[in-house]
Structures are given as structure tokens and as C-alpha cells.
Amino acid sequence: MSTPTGDLTPAAIAAWRAQSQRLHGEHLATPLAAFRHLGAVQSQEYQPSKLTPAMRAAADEDGLAHAGPASVDALIDQGLVVRTHVLRPTWHTVPVEDLRMMLTASADRVQQIAATQYRNLGLEQSELERGDDVLAEATAGGKHLEREEAAEALAAAGVRDPSGARLIHLLFHAELESRICSGTPKGAKQTYANFEDRIPAGELGKDEAIRELARRFFASRGPATVKDFTRWATLKVADAKLAVDELGLRELRFDDRVFYYEGERPEPVEGGPVVDFVQGFDELLCSYTDSKDLVQHHSVARNLFPDRPRFNSAILLDGQVIGNWKATVKKDRVVIETWRVRGFTAAEIAALRRGADRLRAWFGSPEMELGLDHD
């Protein structure tokens, strides 16, 4: 079904996406509901990644505008979500009930992409499979191993040089083969657990898994293109397009591209400008490749955005990137440095201060020191 696009602008699509992702509009009840809505949250840096689900969930502590960090930690501790390698070859945090589906849809494709790196490290297929078996056995029965303990188990079983990049890729391969996944953290350290012990049983065919992954993506991130989806999920375009066609998603045409979405177009959020301080790998930043131009703020020429942002984390103005931020937590305050690609109006500065104050509350600091800088 095609949607009229006469009133659509880059700003309107960005605002629509912010509501689809639940960053704006009605928040979800809990961070777990946010994880289930998004499906996967990119999280190679665990501490900052907690902002992504928290900012989409209702407040669970006094003084917060959204959920706090402890409620996200609790989900990891309780095993309701796992942080593991899935989809693009990086860390993602995923609800346990969705991990099998995501691996069924994409793991073989990711393994194909990783094959060159395995060869460069001298990891032959027989050695990778041996590592899978060793790690599955070492974590069986509820054992959660730190990385060093996993390396010791591999070495004791005769796997050559399980250290450095070789160890990382042995663990990576076993995750993609559904043999291990993340366990309960030991302090600040990641652990590895047996996949079958931790992940609910279930079986799904590959076509069905890709179709469900597509439904989740376009429901939580639409409007988006098929190429946006294929990059996010590491799928072949033909497989992704077939899934989209079978789902019968709604579509719209804008700027010579076809965008897909599920449900109805949301009503615009009332009020003045909204500024959000999001982590550097927030799903509003990482979910779109083909339509990345719509992620950057429409009021600024593309060539004015630096290739290497001054700070990694992003400042969003009405759902589009306008700058970057960095926070340094001190004993009595949090110092928040900001940089923007252009100056702000008085209303935008006020929204920036409100967004920074939400970040201050997230860090649990009584005071903040806010630095304002722009080109």
C-alpha cells in the first residue's frame, strides 16, 4: 500500500522514525519492553549502550525522565537479555527469546563475511569447530567463564594459541554457531555461558526467521529502505526483499527511494524543539545506511558534518544529528561538553539544557557543568 508523500520532508521522516523507535511519543513500560520492540541494541560499549533502551522506557526512579541504568543491568543479571555477537559482526544486546531467530536469519551470512579474517589468523574450519565444542563443554552445567578462563579451557584442549585476536574470533565463531552466549557479568567483566542452558528452546526455518526479523525492523525503525535493513541484518538483498514482499508492508516513495513501515503514520509530537543526548551507537544512528542522509539534521549542508565527530555520542535535534557530546563524571557534578555544527536559537538552547539535565539525572549527579561550543 502506497502512502501520499506530498507533505513529507527529511525532518518529517526523522520525527516519524523517532516515534517508531519510541524515543519520542509514548515510552514503553520497561527497558525489557524496549529491547523487545527494537529487537537488538548495538552495544560494543556496554555502559553507554544502556542509554538506548532506557531512553525509550518510562521512568522507574524519582527524578528521572526515563528508566535508570540499574534496571538495564538487572536484565543482564537475570538473563532476560544477552550481550553477544549477532547480526552485524559486533556486540548486540538481545532478548533471550529472539536470539535463535536472529542467528537463524543471519549467522551463516556473517560467517561468510568473517571467513577471510579467520584465514588471516590461521584458524582453519576444523580448529574453529574444535573450539566450538570445547567452549560448549566448558560452559555446560551453568558455568559462566571469563575470557581468560575460556582461553585456558581452549589451551587445555589443545587449541593452538587461544589468545589475542585468535581468541576473540574463536569466541565469536562459537557465538554465531549457537554454542555460547553471554553469561552473568562478574563485576565489570563479560562472561560466556552455554547457549542451550541460557537460551529458550525453539526452532524456526530460515525464511520465517528473516521474515520475522524484517517485521521487527520496519515496525520499530520505519520508514526505512530494504538496503537499510540488509545492512542492519547482514542479509542478501534478494532474501530481504522477499521477506518485505511477503509481509505486505506499507510503502512510501521519497527522494527516488522506496521506504517501508508497519502500522499508521503517527501524529506529530506537539511542543517546541526536542534535544536528546544519545549514545554513539544508538539505533537512530546505526539502523540506517542507505538513508543515512536523513539522520543528519536537514538545516545543515551535508559537507559541514565532520567525518570524525569531535565527540562520539550524538546530540539529536528533533530526531536528527546536530552535534556531539562527552560527559565526565566527577565527585560533585557531571561535566557535559557539547559541540554543534551550527548555532542554536534561544528555544533550541533551552531544549539543549533540558536534554543535558536529563543526562545529569541519568548519571546520578546533583549538579552539571554544561559547555556550549559550535562552528
From TrEMBL:
Molecular-function annotations in GO: DNA binding
Keywords tagged on the record: DNA-binding
PANTHER family from the UniProt entry: LMO0824 PROTEIN, WINGED HELIX DNA-BINDING DOMAIN-CONTAINING PROTEIN
Official protein name in the record: Winged helix DNA-binding domain-containing protein
Organism listed in the record: Glycomyces sambucus
